[in-house]
Amino acid sequence: MRRRGERSSHPHAISRRTVLRSAVAVAVGVAGGAGAYGLLYERHHIGVTRATVPMRGLPPSLHGLTIGLLTDVHHSDWTSADDVLAAVAALQGSQPDLIVLGGDFVTWGDRGFVAPAAELLGTLTAPHGVFAVLGNHDDDHDMPAALSARGIQVLKDARTKIRIKGEALELAGLRFWTRRSADIARVVRGASAPVILLAHDPRRLTEAAALNVPLVLSGHTHGGQVALPGSRAFIARRFPVLEGLATEGPTTLFVSRGLGTVWVPVRLNCPPEVALLTLTPA
To answer: Which residue from 156, 197, 254, 255 has the fewest beta carbons nearer than 10 Å?
Structure first.
């Protein structure tokens, strides 16, 4: 009989501390392996997401119109020129009718990447134009100037009308910092055709629905970027949706996971994407 306090000499006896140490070691190993996967592979594995997007008021003749959406490029030391070129090639290869760029072209406003980002994106073309809005990482002067110099129309709290198959659509673009309902109303007020609102932040869905805007295209969330159990639910409390489709009243929202990363150069269970959206009447 073993006395109280004595350790067993049995070869198969395992202490509670050993079990806990082993569990921690396994968890660290799994987390390390997942982090390495997200760092070395997943964040470079760029795919094309195809979605059918209902839009109220879309003219019947524009059923099947395709929009290419690329957002959150974050060109930086973490998001290389090769990654941006791969996204550009994937989007261009999808042959959309028009292209929209959803902001955050660089990270933390890094001026060293402003001109290179614009140059990489400047090869994008579409029959009905390439349009862009600014995200929270973009400055209000250099980035739009660089994009405009490459033939990309930057909508800074502005609206423009395009005609396709004899029908009109209006594209309205918000800067990330434009959040007040009255300011957003000034951008969309007086539209004579259905409006597609380009807003980096998907939280503008609330204002868009109140203004009867049929469609909002956004990014900003990175889809959560690192989708561990429970983490997406925590982030999702801030946004109407982290990726894909959502609706509020008369308004449809599509949110793209985007291309780049911020805070850490890792994507996990949340690969980067470009989106090809096919419009259909709601």
So the answer is: 156
Domains of the chain: 45-281 (3.60.21.10)
What sign for the dihedral angle of Cα 110, 116, 120, 123?
A: positive
Whole-prediction pTM: 0.85
Rounded CA-CA distance 71/76 in Å is 14
CA 275 to each of CA 93, 192, 258: distance values in angstroms, whole numbers, following the listed order: 12, 27, 9
Strands 130-132 and 98-101, by their bridges, are parallel
Residue 101's H or E segment, with its range, is: strand 98-101
Neighbours of 123 (CB within 10 A): 13
Phi, psi (rounded to 5 degrees) for 125: -140, 150
pLDDT in tens, the chain (282 residues): 444 444 444 444 444 444 334 333 333 343 445 445 445 557 788 999 999 999 999 999 999 999 999 999 999 999 999 999 999 999 999 999 999 999 999 999 999 999 999 999 999 999 999 999 999 999 999 999 999 999 999 999 999 999 999 999 999 999 999 999 999 999 999 999 999 999 999 999 999 999 999 999 999 999 999 887 766 656 667 899 999 999 999 999 999 999 999 999 999 889 999 999 999 999
Q: Residue 236, CB half-sphere, CA atoms under 13 Å: how many?
A: 15
Q: Is 119 helix (H, G, I), strand (E, B) or coil?
A: helix
